[in-house]
Amino acid sequence: MGTPTSTPVYPIGVVKDLVDLTERQIRYYDKMGLVTPKRTPGGKRLYSARDVERLRLVKSFINRGMRVNEIKEELSRRDRGGDAAADRDRTHGAGMRVPGSAEAYTRLKSLYPVSDRAELERTLDKVRKD
């Protein structure tokens, strides 16, 4: 595990752009226990790369028509070691599984595919201007 200074964290304003959800939706998912970001001493939410990926997963479940209680059960199952589902999520179009742990997968994903780089740059530019 990394130290707090070596682990990237994002405020909710950045996360909303990364996952294309509203701040209200993200707070609701926090309230429902679908994601549990760290908090600053002042109470502000700070999201890890894992939290961002989890929110993307929640969004995909919502888009498939799953209800919050169903999503909570699925996430809980995955957290307990439902590796088959996690492996499916790590599968790319060529049918190849990304090797290694979930932590290694998160690090790999944090490099952002080239197709998302332009969007990432726009988001970062917007955040820097604000």
How are the SSEs placed, and which strands pair?
Elements: E1 9-11, H1 12-19, H2 23-31, E2 38-39, E3 45-48, H3 49-63, H4 68-79, H5 83-89, H6 102-109, H7 114-129
Antiparallel strand pairs: 1-3, 2-3
Helix pairs in contact: 1-7
Number of helices: 7
| Residue share in β-strands | 5-15%
How can the largest sheet be summarized? 3 strands, antiparallel
The shape, in one word, is: globular
CA distance, first residue to last residue: 32 Å
Read across the widest sheet, the strand sequence of neighbours is: 1-3-2
Structural class: mainly alpha
Give the helix level as a range of percent. Answer: 55-70%
Order of helices and strands: EHHEEHHHHH
The third-level CATH topology is Multidrug-efflux Transporter Regulator, Chain: A, Domain 2
Average per-residue pLDDT, rounded, comes to 77
CATH class: Mainly Alpha
Counting structural domains, the number is: 1
- Low-pLDDT parts are 90-101
Report the C-alpha radius of gyration, rounded: 15 Å
Describe it:
With 130 residues, the protein is mainly alpha-helical. The chain has one domain: Orthogonal Bundle (Multidrug-efflux Transporter Regulator, Chain: A, Domain 2). The chain has 7 helices and 3 strands; from the N terminus they run βααββααααα. The protein has helices at 12-19, 23-31, 49-63, 68-79, 83-89, 102-109, 114-129, and strands at residues 9-11, 38-39, 45-48. A 3-stranded antiparallel β-sheet has the order 1-3-2. α1 packs antiparallel against α7 (114-129). The model is unreliable at 90-101 (pLDDT under 50).
